[in-house]
Amino acid sequence: MDSVRFGLSIRALRRRLRWTQDTLAHRARVSQSLIARVELGGADRVTPAVLRRICDAHGARLTIRVDWHGEALDRLLDADHASLVERVVRELQANGWRCLVEVTFAIGRERGSIDVLALHEATGTLLVVEVKSVIPDIQATLAALDRKVRLGPAIARDRGWRSERVATILVAAEGRTNRRRVQAVGATFATHLPARSAEARTFVEQPSGTIHGLWFLPISTQTTGRHRVGRSHAPSPA
DNA sequence: TAAGCGACAACAGGGTGCTA
DNA sequence: TAGCACCCTGTTGTCGCTTA
């Protein structure tokens, strides 16, 4: 983000409305000194939520987008996800599951894709796997998973798969941050995905009945907390 | 033995109050 | 309106305990 341009923009909008910094601060529910800081190019020291409030006060819209080396960022973001999907597919196939990856569907008005759709033919078990390298929005993640579970049998039928029951596993990258996010909404997870990693693994190895669970798996390229030595904060500028 | 989780420390950065 | 100093909060890494 160009903080200087952002600050000049806010100032221009504020003056157009003939507001003082105090007026804007009141409307955006921040202090006057913060408005001054932002207008002078200090937006990079303010949270996006506050910047959004300042924009909202003007009726403006804040858009944040990260660009890096053309499409390289998309490939980087995809790498962790792809690594987890690969890990899941290996685990499933090793235990006799047939797997389809990135299964797109269009049923009525419902469109989307399932990260991994697996069938255990011996038991007639269909497994819908949602893979998340990071869990940014728990509610949205669970809502998307519910929808895919509902549509799973129909999607499987389209591919000639016959199933008697549907199971779901949300696979998340192992890490303290993801675990804490899940823990923070423990009651929600207990309702939607009560099974945990050990049960999920047992189910994958020997599917019986059905399961709705959460499985933490390490990303091979990721350094997990316990293996790191020392802190990783960026050094302060000199 | 691995998974899960609570507690704690360290740190960076956000936001405010005060004042020139 | 601008700038400084301070306090508070959130995040992350680590340790150690419990449980299956």
List keywords for this structure.
single chain; Trna Endonuclease, Chain: A, domain 1; disordered C terminus; alpha/beta; elongated; 434 Repressor (Amino-terminal Domain); 47% helix; 18% strand; 238 residues; DNA-binding; 2 domains; five-stranded mixed β-sheet
Count of DSSP-assigned helices: 9
Shape: elongated
Unreliable stretches: 221-238
Q: What is the overall pLDDT average?
A: 76
CATH class of the largest domain, please? Alpha Beta
Supply the helix-strand structural class. Answer: alpha/beta
Question: Rg, please?
Answer: 23 Å
For the biggest sheet, the summary is: 5 strands, mixed
CATH architecture field of the largest domain: 3-Layer(aba) Sandwich
User: Gap between N and C termini, in Å?
Assistant: 22 Å
In terms of DSSP E residues, the strand content is 15-25%
| Multimeric organization | single chain
Number of strands: 5
User: What string, H for helix and E for strand, traces the elements in order?
Assistant: HHHHHEEEHEHHHE
CATH topology of the largest domain: Trna Endonuclease, Chain: A, domain 1
